[in-house]
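Q: What would this chain look like folded?
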Amino acid sequence: MVQSMKFLVWTIAALAMLGLPLAHAQAVQDADTASDSAQAPVETEIEQEEAPPQILQILVEGNQRVEADTILSYMLVRPGDVADPRLINLSIQTLFATNLFADVRVARERSTLIVYVRENPVINRVVLEGNRAINDDRITDEIQLQPRALFTRARVQDDVQRILEVYRRSGRFAVQVNPQIVELPQNRVDLVFEISEGPTTGVRRINFVGNRAYSDRRLRGETVTSEARWWRFFDSNDNYDPDRLEFDREQLREFYADRGYADFRVSSAIAELVPDQSGFYITYTVEEGQVYNFGEITVTTEIEDLSSEYLEAIVATQPGSLYVGSRIEESVDTLTFAAGAAGYAFVDVRPRVTTNREDQTVDIEYVINPAPRVYIERIDILGNSRTLDRVIRRELELVEGDAFNQVLVNLSEQRVRRLGFFEEVEIEPVQGTDADRARLQVNVTEQPTGELAFGVGYSSTDAFLIDFSVSERNLRGRGQFLRLRVSESSRRRQIDIRFTEPRFLDRNLAAGFDLFQVRSNFSQEASFETESTGFSLRSGFPLTASVEGGVNYTLRTDEVRTFAGVSSAIARAAGSRVTSLLGYSVAWNRIDDFQQPTNGFQVSLNQEIAGVGGDVRYVRTEGRGAVYRNVFRPDVVLSLTGEAGLILAWGGDAVRINDRFFKGGNSFRGFETAGIGPRVVQRTDTGELTRGDSLGGNFYAIGALELGFPLGLPEQYGVRGSVFTEFGTMGVLPSVDQIEDVGGTTSPFTIDELAPRVSVGVSIFWDSPFGPVRFDFAEAVVHQEYDRREFFRFSTSTGF
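A: My prediction, written as C-alpha cells:
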C-alpha cells in the first residue's frame, strides 16, 4: 500500500513539474509574517520572497499512532531542498489521500518545516439502533466500517447508502439512517447508525401492456413479485425489490418462449412509487410476437462414434412440434450426456438458431465440436477433512485408467451423496495433462454426522415420550454406524445398541449387530404385556445396481404376562419362551430420494423362519411396495403404497398372540392401534356387540393412495399436507384361539372375518425443531361394528 501511494505521489509530482494545474491545498504559514487569510495560496506567500529558503529540518507534530518516519515518507521535500510551494502542496494532498488524517497543515519557521497532523479517530464499535425487520448480521455484512477501522466521514456516508440499499431490497423505501458519533478517550469513537425503518413498501398493482394471448392475471402468476394482500403475512414477495424485477422479466421471457413465442421480449419494466411512499405500481410493456413451431432439426458432428441419426432422435426438439425454448437447453444437456457416455468428456455443443418469420418456424442445428476420447488420469477428493478417502473412493464406479463415462460419473455422485455424510457432493471432470486425459474432482462439503439427542414429546398413542440417544453415522471417518438409544413412554420402553460396518472385510458387504431389550404394554388393546431381550446379527449385500439382499439371525427371550380374566386365546400365550429366527430379505429400489421420494418405485420381500432352535416354530412373510410420481408440479407427489403379511405355524405349533400382526393407528389411519382384525366380543341384551380384547391376525393386506403437497408456507417452516385413502383387511386366527358363539349375553366369543375397511382423510406434516410431527384427521367410511375407530391422531418421532 505504501509503495503504491509513493508511486502515485511521484506521478503527480512529475505532472506538476510539467506545468499541469494542481488542486488547491492549505497554505504554508510563515511564523514571522501573519497571513491575512487562512485560504491564501502558498505560492503567493512564497513568491513574494526574493529567493526560496533552504529547508534544513522537517518536524512532525500531532501524531499519536502513525510514526513520524511514516509521515515523512509521504513528503516530497527533504532536508536540504528548497521550499518549493508546489511540492509542499502535493505533500499535503498525499497525506490527505492516505485517509489517516482528518487535518494536515504545513508551517515554516525560518529553515524548519513543521507538519501539523490530526489523525482520524479509530472506531471502537459499530452500533445499530432501531433495526427490527433486518437483523444486525445482515447489515454488518454489507457495511465497510468495522471496529478498529479508521473513521472518515466519506466512509460513513458510503455505509449509510449501503444500509439504505439493504432496506430497499427488503421493500422499505421510507427508511432513514442517521449516523451519530460518540467521542471516546485516546482518539476513539463509537459509530452509531440510528435507523428509522418506516413501513414496508408493498406492490399495490402489477399491470401488463401489450399482452394479447394471456391475461394479466395469468402473467402475474408467473412473476415472483406478487401484489400485496392482507392474507400474505408469511410472504415477502409482495415487497418491491428491483433485483427481483429483473428476475421477473426473465421469468416472463421463459414463460412465453415455452409456449411458442420465439420473438417475445419485455421492452420495459417501470416501477412507480406513489407520493406517500406506501406502495409501487409496476408496469410491464411486452411484445409477444408470433407463435412458432420447430422447423428443421439437425445434429452435426465429426466424431465417428456418435451417430447423427441417433442423436437427432433423442433430442427434445422435434420438427413440426411447438417451439419450446427450454427444450433447446434440454437437448444440449442430452447431447452432452450422450457424448460423455461414449467417453468424450469435454465436447462443446452449440445450438445455431435460425428464425424463419415467413413460415413461422425455427430451425436448429446442434454442432458438436470434435474432441478426443478421454481417459481418467487421476481422481482427486477435496473437502473431506474428516472422512477417509477410501470411504469415498469405494463408492465411485470409476478408477484411474478407466475410459470416461458420464453415466458412471453421475452414478458415482449419487452413491457418494447417498452415504449421508456430506451436505454437498459434486463430481466434475477437469482437463488433464493431455487433451485425452481428464481428472475427476470429487468436491464434498462435510456435515455433522454425530448426534446427541434428548427429546420429550406427546402423542395420542403413547402419551408422554422420553427419548435419549447418542449416534454417529461416520464413526472415526470410516463410514461405520454406532447408536445407543433409550426411549420410554407409557406403552413402550426400549434400550438398544446398534453397530454397522458398511464394508465388512473390505468387501461390498455390510455387517452389524444389535443388542436390545424391549418392553411393550398392550393392556388397553389385548390385556397383556411383553418383554423381549436378545441380540441379532445381520448383513446386506448388493445383487444388482438397484437390488439388495440381506440375511439376519435373531435370538431373543420373550416373556408374556397376561392380566386376570382374559380369554383363553390370550392366556395360552403366557410364560417365557426362546425365539430363534433366521431370515432373509430382498429389496428392489428405484426411487430418487430415500428421505423424501418424488419419483420411482421400491419393492421388498422379507421372510423369517422361527424354529432353528428355540421353543417357537413359525414362518413369517411380509412384502411391501410403493410407487411415487410427480403430478402437476415437482413438489406435488402422488404415491401408491401397499403391504401384506402372512404368518404360519409349523411342527404342530400355533402362533401366539405376541407374534401375530396388529394393525391400526399409524399403520391404518382412521382406526386405533390394534383397532381392526379378530377380536373377543360379547353381545348385550339389545343385540349390540361389546368390544373386548384384540387378538391380532395371521394375515393382513393394507394399501394407501396419497397426494402430498406444500401448504403455501415458506419452505423453511417444513410444513406439508396430504389427502389420502387407505384400504385393507386383517384376520385368520388359529383354530385353537377361536371361541364359538353359543348365544346369550354372558358368554364372550371371537369374530374373525377378512372384511374390508376403508378410510379417507388429511394429514399435516411438520418438521419441527423438536422432531417430525404428524397430525392425522381420518374418517373410517367402511368398517365393522366391533372395530375401534379414531378421527384424530397426533404423533411425533425421532429420526435416525
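The chain has six domains: 2-119, 122-196, 202-287, 293-368, 375-446, 450-796.
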